[in-house]
Amino acid sequence: MSYKTIISAENLIKNINSKEFIIFDCRCDIKETSYGIDQYTEGHIPNAIFVDIDTDLADKKTSTSGRHPLPDPKILTEKLCNWGMSNTKQVVIYDDAGGAFAGRMWWILRWLGHEKTALLDGGLGAYMAVGGKLTSEITAYANTSFDIFANDAMHVTIKEVEDAQYRMDKLIIDARSKERYLGIKDMVDPIAGHVPGAISYPLGNNLDKTGCFKSAEELKLQFSKVIGDTKSEDIISMCGSGITACHNILAMEIAGIKNVRLYVGSWSEWITDKNRPIATIDNN
Fold first, then answer.
1. Domains in the chain, ordered, with CATH?
2. Residue 212 annotated to the active site
3. Residue 20: beta bridge partners?
């Protein structure tokens, strides 16, 4: 059996020593760059490999890009080969933030053509809750071969976003908090607000009280109220810098809403041009 969206902690534990599985730790704190590797060093799921959101899953920021541009596929592929990745392996990715960061790697591996990729449902907390143990041993695998095919149809350009804000048949969904979306306060980006026409849908809506994803039926009902008759390929998912927007894409995938595209640059790219309009609670 292959997992393409999420995997339960129980099923991960059953396969934790399987050579067909590879586990990635994507813990991150956008305000503390060393948080992820510090936590990994202190203790992680056995056989897990640490992946840095800022340096492994993103290229360097430019004056016109968002905070997390897509990584160079060739450079990332080299890293994946060094980590022991192959085209046949089942990937499991986790964090300790409900999948907010792990979702980025899920999306990137799908972008590179690897569909056997799943988030650990409930993250590290769910794993610990069912008796999972941690280790401080550093994981090392033999170098492998991993062939990719980057599907750039999975993400949109800034021009497509500029066009979508005025189209009734397009929909932009923003995964950031209501506070940031409304322009009340933004602790991450220098300018607060949202793309005119974008709909607020914070990623927390995808999770239940335990931090696990809601059922496919619940997610489908929730998204149907936002999406209406919009075709899935006409939906654009955005956030602050193309990280948490992937969480909404994953949730929609679970709900059977496929081919939603990512605005990689997201809000942090949008505000690099002062001529682009900004909506807030005051001018909505």
1. 6-151 (3.40.250.10), 155-270 (3.40.250.10)
2. no
3. none
Encode the chain in three state secondary structure: CCCCCEECHHHHHHCCCCCCEEEEECCCCCCCCCHHHHHHHHCECCCEEECCCCCCCCCCCCCCCCCCCCCCHHHHHHHHHHHCCCCCCEEEEECCCCCCCHHHHHHHHHHCCCCCEEEECCHHHHHHHCCCCCECCCCCCCCCCCCCCCCHHHECCHHHHHHHCCCCCCEEEECCCHHHHCCCCCCCCCCCCECCCCEECCHHHHECCCCCECCHHHHHHHHHHHHCCCCHHHEEEECCCCCCHHHHHHHHHHCCCCCCEECCCHHHHHCCCCCCCCECCCCC
What per-residue confidence (pLDDT) applies to 142? 87
From CA 146, how far away is CA 76, in angstroms rounded?
11
Maximum distance among all alpha carbons in the chain? Answer: 56
- The model carries a pTM of 0.97
**Token representation of residue 25:** 């730790």
Which pLDDT belongs to residue 146?
96
What is the token pair recorded at 267?
Answer: 């809000």
Ranges of the chain whose pLDDT falls below 50: none
Closest CA to 240 of 111, 83, 58: 58
Joined together, the tokens standing for residue 167 give 């189209």
Of the residues 26, 212, 239, 246, which is catalytic?
Answer: 239
What pLDDT score was predicted for residue 284?
55
Could you read off the pLDDT of 56-99 as tens digits, one per residue? 999 999 999 999 999 999 999 999 999 999 999 999 999 999 99
pLDDT at 139: 87
- The confidence score (pLDDT) of residue 184 equals 94
